[in-house]
Amino acid sequence: MGAQIAAHLANAGVPVLLLDLDAETAAAGLKRARKLKPDPFFTRDAARLITTGGFDSDLPRLAGCDWIMEAVVERLDIKQALLAQVEPHRGTDAVVSSNTSGIPVADIAEGRSPAFRRHWLGTHFFNPPRYLQLLEIIPTRDTAAEVVDRIARFADFALGKGVVVARDTPGFIANRIGMYGAARTLELLADGQFTVEEIDALSGPLIGRARSATFRTMDIAGLDILAHVAGDLNRRLTDETERGSFRLPALVDSLIERGWIGEKAGQGFYRKERTPEGSRILTLDPASLTYRPRQSPQLPAIDAAQAIDDLPARIRTLLLDRGRAGGSAGRSYTPLRRRPPWPTPRATWTAPCAGDSAGNWGRSSCGRKSARTSCWRRAGCPRRRQRSATWMPCARPAGRSSGSCARPRPSGLRSGGTRAPASWIWATACWRSSSTPR
């Protein structure tokens, strides 16, 4: 993930030094990133802005950088150990952040100095970062307001991100919503109600989401990551009803035990197999845990919906279907038009309000064309209560008034600056400025 975020910065013209355990490991990570599909780079030439280095020899170079981002493995002890090494080399005004998807941001900086904690926050990019717009910014109680503003503005204007500011609560925003939906969908598969192909047909472009739909997306992200996020929510949530909402079926554990964790293992819900005639995609049969040739979905409602050009009308057709398709669509959408079984929104994000742009940015974490509650309303389905959608996340980037979406003048990453700087440093991606003096 660190290499892909570095690629997105290089796309914006930012020179990057990509750091890993050593220079050889960093170079190998960059090489893998250049082969990924979809391509994380705008052009092949953009990769020339990235050079590689290692934690073993290049940490002193952090002194000349403005933003340090940690993007290592999702383990609290490893992240804390790395920050202990980073702090002595951090510049006075340098921002430090973590790309964690769910570990408490405040816990990662435990033991660091007050000055460090004032410049510390979470910055959660979504995979693949070039294509998914949402960026969650997670300040702690110690984070200075101007630090949040600097990062939000830079991400907005330089990186084209839709920024939402979340509280430091389990799952932040997108993983809290996304994991709830993923658990409900996995239950449909594990119960034998639907095949992998049927669920992906119902949860892809047909309802305004990405072609990767549900199970291809899980394969890309990794079932190990999926289980880790769900497990973290189960550990950190205290209410038994809330915890139960995020328990995954035993099918996921069975796949992880076999090492079938998705694309990085060569197989998950799908497996690509080479044959003398070329290659073919096989699909998991959850009952036998074997792979079989792909099958066409056997749902008449899909054919009926595909003939409709208007997205809300398609969704309405699926929701009102009296067959299995209607049951699946209802199970995915219906819980999200009510307050879902987790804490009140003010405990999760900073400024909840219905129908705002942050709700649409939130959908981008899954490549959707339309947010779930927005689709529900546009499809003509009635609200159960006037406040039915008020739980949807909304947080405007710093500098935007509540009544206007006019873009403020960008302040740049440095305090008082008037342009976005060309110096960034990550724990796995470091950008050093050669044009802006400190």
Question: How would you explain this protein's 3D organization?
Answer:
The chain is α/β, with parallel strands linked by helices and 438 residues long. The protein folds into 2 domains: 2-166 and 411-426, Rossmann fold; 174-378, N-(1-d-carboxylethyl)-l-norvaline Dehydrogenase, domain 2 (Orthogonal Bundle). It contains 18 helices and 11 strands. It has a 6-stranded mixed β-sheet with strand order 7-6-5-4-3-11, sandwiched between helices. Strand 5 (120-125) and strand 6 (134-139) form a beta hairpin. Helix 14 (300-306) packs antiparallel against helix 15 (311-319), helix 15 (311-319) crosses helix 16 and helix 15 (311-319) crosses helix 18. The longest helix has 17 residues, at 174-190.
Judged by helices, strands and strand pairing, the structural class is alpha/beta
Q: Tell me the count of domains.
A: 2
Question: Any idea of the CATH class of the largest domain?
Answer: Mainly Alpha
Amount of helix: 25-40%
How is the CATH topology of the largest domain named?
N-(1-d-carboxylethyl)-l-norvaline Dehydrogenase, domain 2
The appropriate CATH architecture of the largest domain is Orthogonal Bundle
CATH superfamily caption of the largest domain? N-(1-d-carboxylethyl)-l-norvaline Dehydrogenase, domain 2
Largest sheet: 6 strands, mixed
Task: Give, in order, the helices and strands.
Answer: HEHEHEHEHHEEHEHHHHHHEEEHHHHHE
In the predicted model, the low-confidence regions spanning at least 5 consecutive residues are: 341-346, 351-360, 362-367, 383-438
Mean pLDDT: 79
Proportion in β-strands: 5-15%
The end-to-end span amounts to 29 Å
Instruction: Work out the number of β strands.
Output: 11
Question: How many DSSP helices?
Answer: 18
The neighbouring-strand order within the major sheet is 7-6-5-4-3-11
Shape category: globular
